[in-house]
Amino acid sequence: MNRGWYPRPRGAADHLASGRISLFDDGVHDFLCMNAQSRIDPSSNVPPGIWIGSAKKIWLLTARQDNERAIQRSIQKLERIGWIRRYRTPGHRGDYAILISKFVVTDLSGTQYIINAELSEDWKHPKYLPCTLPRTELSGKRQGTVTPPTRIKELENKTFLPRTRKQNIEEAKRKILEYGVKGVAC
Q1: Count of other CB atoms within 10 angstroms of residue 10
Q2: What three-state secondary structure class fits 34?
Q3: Is the dihedral of CA 169, 14, 182, 39 positive or negative?
Q4: Of 4, 17, 32, 55, which is the most exposed, with the fewest CB atoms less than 10 Å away?
């Protein structure tokens, strides 16, 4: 398992409160994020934001605490709502590549990027957007982004409905045009 930490968006709490995901689904997503490659390193065989595994592997790595079928359902749900993309080979069983959408990765110089799963065609070449918006210091050693009050109001009024992959791609293209080379908030 990887050591250290990974940036976790606070928006997951909104999805939990709205019922879009369950606490179990959030735990499976958290497990994937903790075990995914988080550094852009040319010498690595696995690109950043990717975890090679399956529901059975999660079940085995978590000491068989939960039902394997429940983990499979959770992975399917995370893919359906656009939090991950699975790259499985038809007719094969076992481990496969899982791309984690909106996962923050860092290159060797410390620059952060966010993975855009909607625009990624192949798991071996995920698409990145730079995270270049300013970060505000919250306390002595901790840093993070501050959500403006208007954005909080937007999130409170937003309902979360399942979206198609085409809708996700259209929104990703709109965001790229809107932010241009500036990047997106991480």
Answers
A1: 10
A2: helix
A3: negative
A4: 4
Q: Is residue 6 part of a domain?
A: no
Q: What is the dihedral of CA 87, 89, 95, 99, to 10 degrees?
A: 0
- Edge-to-edge strand ranges of the sheet holding 104-107: 39-40, 104-107, 112-116, 127-130
Number of domains in the chain: 1
Q: Find out whether 68 and 59 touch, Cβ atoms under 8 Å.
A: yes
Q: What is the mean pLDDT of residues 12-25?
A: 87
Domain contains 2: no
> How far is C-alpha 94 from the chain's CA centre?
22
Q: What is the domain range of residue 130?
A: 12-182
The first and second tokens of residue 38, run together, are 């988080």
